[in-house]
């Protein structure tokens, strides 16, 4: 970096933001600036972040204005901007012309963001490329007169916003990230609730691919500024979160190299002209063994620390490429580690497959377990207490929202 100090600036305040700050600190010994509406638990009382709090963390204008202020206060640093949720990536990309005057902005173009962030369009792209996706029906809410699209799928089925950014600020009783719809009447209720809440985007209705959480897979990729895919890492999901707002976020995974699946992700990234980080959600269809691609997040995932823990710190890839202008030899991660945000005993309660459970126990015994919040370099007494409480709190959440394993993960 030719003597110019690196200064990471991250939008957001969740566990994924803390994981990014931790990865930056492990790689470069730097403190990250975190811009958000509040210093939430995962980043609170941390020695590796500096907080820039805005009055309204949901107001793009306030966030962008504060980013400019932070930049002007650090004129002698090389500023790298990161974000860890879809709507914040959209804020950055929409204000790229202004922000690139101060920051390195390692995100894809707005045109491609619009295409791949929409689950309906994503499904079309995958189908054209020969990648398998669940059968998808699109329900439009932005046009009048409104009518319900005919649904010729077998119940139960899945319903979710085509674009999570469009759904971010919509509020109604019973709101969830993903809905399992058991009957036509439940679907009618959901459409009414969305219209009543003023939702104007698109929802997708998809076939339910059977299988519990252990059928899920996660892929993290980095495509450099020249279009070279320099980082690929896949993981076998063991357990997902089941709170209404967190449904589908992995709570525990084992990093597992799966070249056949990674090759399909590679096809998608190369064919679309992708740039920056990408995080794919994939499910193995137990009926056929096929990889069913659900979506790609236009950013590094909330659970990004599994990649760092497996020996390939993603922040090195983006810094060496986008900040230092150096080409990085491509890496496909094959080290096996257990990534988890839940207590070991709780995890083993939900992993019913004997072979998988044996792998989990072996990694626990080998101390090859990575917990993103438990960082030796950042354990003040108050933080230590929060990390312990967050672990204990997972027991309460699973008891309430997912007391027993189900055949569908719902």
TrEMBL record:
Sorted alphabetically, the keyword list is: ATP-binding, Nucleotide-binding
Q: Name one Pfam family in it.
A: CPSase_L_D2
ATP-grasp domain: which residues?
123-323
Cite the GO molecular-function annotations of the record: ATP binding; metal ion binding
For this protein, the record's SUPFAM superfamilies field holds:
Glutathione synthetase ATP-binding domain-like
What InterPro entries does the record point to?
A: ATP-grasp (IPR011761), CPAse_ATP-bd (IPR005479)
Report the protein name in the record. ATP-grasp domain-containing protein
- Which organism does this record belong to? Cellulomonas humilata
């Amino acid at each position: 970096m030719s003597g110019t100090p690196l200064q990471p600036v991250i939008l957001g305040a969740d566990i994924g933001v803390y994981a990014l700050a931790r990865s930056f600190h492990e790689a470069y010994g730097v403190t990250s600036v975190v811009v958000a509406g509040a210093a939430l638990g995962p980043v609170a009382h941390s020695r590796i972040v500096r907080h820039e709090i805005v009055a309204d963390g949901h107001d793009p204008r306030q966030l962008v204005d504060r980013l400019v202020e932070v930049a002007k206060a650090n004129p002698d640093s090389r500023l790298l901007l990161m974000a860890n949720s879809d709507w914040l990536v959209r804020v950055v990309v929409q204000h790229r012309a202004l922000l690139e005057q101060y920051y390195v902005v390692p995100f894809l173009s707005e045109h491609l963001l619009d295409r791949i962030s929409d689950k309906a369009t994503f499904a079309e792209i995958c189908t054209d490329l020969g990648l398998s996706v669940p059968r998808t029906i699109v329900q439009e809410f932005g046009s009048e007169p409104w009518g319900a699209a005919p649904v010729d799928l077998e119940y139960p089925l899945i319903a979710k916003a085509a674009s999570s950014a469009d759904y971010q600020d919509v509020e109604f009783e019973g709101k969830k990230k993903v809905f399992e719809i058991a009957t036509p009447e439940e679907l009618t209720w959901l459409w009414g609730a969305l219209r009543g809440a003023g939702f104007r985007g698109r929802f997708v209705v998809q076939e339910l691919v059977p299988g519990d959480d252990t059928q899920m897979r996660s892929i993290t990729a980095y495509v450099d500024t020249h279009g070279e895919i320099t980082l690929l890492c896949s993981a076998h999901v063991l357990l997902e979160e089941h709170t209404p707002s967190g449904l589908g976020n992995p709570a525990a995974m084992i990093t597992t190299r799966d070249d056949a699946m990674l090759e399909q992700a590679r096809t998608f990234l190369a064919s679309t002209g992708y740039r920056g980080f990408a995080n794919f959600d994939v499910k193995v269809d137990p009926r056929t063994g096929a990889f069913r691609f659900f979506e790609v997040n236009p950013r590094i995932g909330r659970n990004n620390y599994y990649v760092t823990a497996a020996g390939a710190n993603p922040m090195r890839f983006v810094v060496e490429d986008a900040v230092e202008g150096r080409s990085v030899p491509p890496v496909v991660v094959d080290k096996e580690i257990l990534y988890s945000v839940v207590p070991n005993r709780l995890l083993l309660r939900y992993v019913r497959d004997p072979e998988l459970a044996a792998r989990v126990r072996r990694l626990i015994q080998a101390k090859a377990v990575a917990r993103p919040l438990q960082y030796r370099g950042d354990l003040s007494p108050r933080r230590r207490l929060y990390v312990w409480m967050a672990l204990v709190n997972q027991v309460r959440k699973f008891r309430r929202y997912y007391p027993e394993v189900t055949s569908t993960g719902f």
